[in-house]
Automatic annotation (TrEMBL):
GO terms for biological process: gluconeogenesis; glycolytic process. It is an enzyme of class 2 (transferase). Substrate binds at residues 20-22, 36, 59-62, 116, 156. The keyword Isomerase does not apply. Monomer. (2R)-3-phosphoglycerate binds at residues 36, 116, 156. Transmembrane segments: none annotated. The keyword Transmembrane helix does not apply. One of its GO terms (molecular function) is phosphoglycerate kinase activity. Pathway: Carbohydrate degradation; glycolysis; pyruvate from D-glyceraldehyde 3-phosphate: step 2/5. GO terms for cellular component: cytosol. This is Phosphoglycerate kinase. Keywords: ATP-binding, Cytoplasm, Glycolysis, Kinase, Nucleotide-binding, Transferase.
Length: 396
């Protein structure tokens, strides 16, 4: 059974809270988006209000990447967002970090340094090995309890996710609770259940499609984005070399795997009927019969939108991951805008994916959805009907 914050005796307790505040970093090195910080405000505020002494654990970026940074700016922003003081500590489990936790007053918090500054946090462990890492061995004695609110990282076998629950009484935070309520109960959501799989994670999306079709979770899968182009190629449509190159760049097996899936479930998988390309600097829509084109298919066309919209408006649950096109370019945002707008008219609408959430923010559609997941990879894994290692670790 997973215990929730309601089960935690917070007053005076030193509580380690794993959050996911991994965010886009701007050219000036500051935070370019604070959506993931905002998501954790409820959990942190509640624990502080209830008198806990909160030690926040988080990562930012991956070693070697441009967004691999310290968490000073995150702490500053959290301090502004949360109605309790939040300090920054430039180490994660040193004696200084432990002293800072010991010195916390009730109702205050400290954000410890990027966990991935330590190599253990960028490796995959079994739960038994994770418990013996330096991070867990050094930090657990300074803590009375552990809360995992980092849904978006809970598919990672990292010590801050799977190590602490073996050493400390452990609880799910409010973000985790909301995500599990929705994504963990997809099989009970209203039918018909329509999945829209777009974006660029072609292999992941084909895996999700196979899994939800085989498990009977999906009544139909509507494909768009690069995923849709992979299915069109698998169906023998000659899109042109440019579109094929974009698909193959993402995955060598996509067209074959999409073809295998079409063999098994052709009647439940929908593919674009028209696409948008760039011609003379303008958006130009082409029916499939007018292809191949020298330019790459950058969006779905109006006929596809109309067909998909009709299906989505009648859906009991619309579950969407990945934009329908290159939404970052205003000429190719229409497919995503119209498709996602139609999905908000379904009885229940659920969205996952980091880029998808930014697309919805850009298009002003975020409020129309019943649930916008904080996770990308984690949400996709849950949508296949699987659980996450970090969730299993809490279930004791
Ligand atoms: N037809 C297309 N051609 C090229 N890129 C596309 C196309 N459709 C969508 N994309 C790109 O896919 C990216 C997002 O995909 P993905 O990372 O899978 O989404 P998410 O982060 O929501 O899971 C966006 O950068 C978008 O420009
Ligand atoms: O941004 C994240 O995941 P996402 O890109 O799947 O949304 C999480 O912070 C996990 O980061 P990771 O994929 O570097 O382990």
């Amino acid at each position: 059974m997973i215990r929730l914050l309601d089960d935690l005796d917070a007053e005076g307790a030193a509580v380690g809270v794993r959050v996911d505040i991994n965010s886009p970093i701007g050219e000036d090195g500051g935070l370019a988006d604070d959506a993931r910080l905002l998501a954790h405000v409820d959990t942190i505020s509640e624990l502080c209000r209830r008198g806990a002494r909160v030690a926040l654990l988080a990562h930012q970026g991956r070693p070697g990447g441009e967004d691999f940074t310290e968490l000073r700016a995150h702490a500053k922003r959290l301090d502004e967002l949360v109605d309790a003081p939040i300090e920054y500590c430039d180490s994660t489990f040193s004696s200084d970090a432990r002293a800072r936790i010991d010195a916390l007053d009730s109702g205050t918090a400290v954000l410890l340094e990027n966990t991935r500054f330590y190599s253990e946090e960028y490796m995959s462990f079994t739960p038994d090995d994770a418990v013996n890492t330096y991070l867990v061995c050094r930090l657990a004695p300074a803590l009375d309890a552990y809360v995992n609110d980092a849904f978006a990282t809970s598919h990672r076998r990292q010590p801050s996710i799977i190590g602490f629950p073996q050493r400390l009484p452990s609880f799910a935070g409010r973000v985790m609770e909301r995500e599990l309520d929705v994504l963990g109960n997809i099989a009970r959501s209203p039918e018909p259940r329509i999945y829209v799989l777009g974006g660029a994670k072609v292999d992941d999306s084909i895996d999700v499609a196979r899994s939800v079709l085989e498990r009977g979770l999906a009544d139909a899968v509507l494909t768009a984005g690069i995923v849709g182009n992979a299915f069109l190629l698998a169906d023998g449509v000659s899109l042109g070399a440019a579109s094929a190159a974009v698909v193959n760049e993402r995955s060598h097996d996509a067209v074959k795997n999409a073809g295998d899936l079409l063999d098994d479930f052709s009647h439940r998988i929908y593919m674009p009927r028209d696409v948008a390309i760039e011609r003379d600097g303008e958006r130009c829509e082409l029916d499939l019969e007018e292809l191949p084109s020298d330019s790459s298919a950058m969006d779905i066309g109006a006929r596809t939108v109309a067909t998909y919209a009709e299906i989505l408006e009648d859906a009991g649950t619309a579950i969407l991951n990945g934009p329908a096109g290159v939404f970052e370019d205003d000429r190719f945002e229409t497919g995503t805008l119209e498709l996602y707008k139609a999905a908000t008219r379904a009885e229940t609408s659920i969205v996952g994916g980091g880029d998808t959430a930014s697309a919805l923010r850009k298009l002003g559609l975020l409020d129309g959805f019943d649930h916008v997941s904080t996770g990308g990879g984690a949400a996709l894994q849950m949508l296949t009907g699987d659980t996450l290692v970090g969730v299993e670790a809490l279930d004791r």
